[in-house]
Design a protein that fits this description.
Elements (H helix, E strand, L loop, with lengths): L1 E13 L12 E13 L11 H13 L4 E2 L14 H15 L7 E10 L2 E5 L2
Parallel strand pairs: 1-3
Antiparallel strand pairs: 1-2, 2-4, 4-5
Helix pairs in contact: 1-2
This protein binds zinc ion.
Amino acid sequence: MYELTVETSFSAAHCLEKHPSPCGRLHGHNWTVAVTVTGDELNTMGMVVDFAVLKQALREAVAVFDHRYLNELPPFCDGAQPTAENIARHIWGAVAEKLAAYASVTVKEIKIAESPSAWVVYRP
Ligand SMILES: [Zn+2]
């Protein structure tokens, strides 16, 4: 079993509505997002999947959030709070969809950090 991880980042604002802490006020983060995939098989290049493919899939998945106000965007404009947990699950789905053509690759997890000391790992 191989595990491959690539990381990217984006900047965005959000507000956790009705949260009694400062998280309930409009604020922003420089989010760091990493995807880890697994696979048992190597292609003819000796790779599970090219890192460039993973980076492209992850960058495309987070591009919709970059320099935006997350509360205004799907799925967060429909009632889901833009918590790190919900953002991670959403990005997992977007990356999995973009990598669907790579049948031997499994999207294991998304790690998203709001800061160097606070992060969420989502594994379906
Ligand atoms: Zn926040």
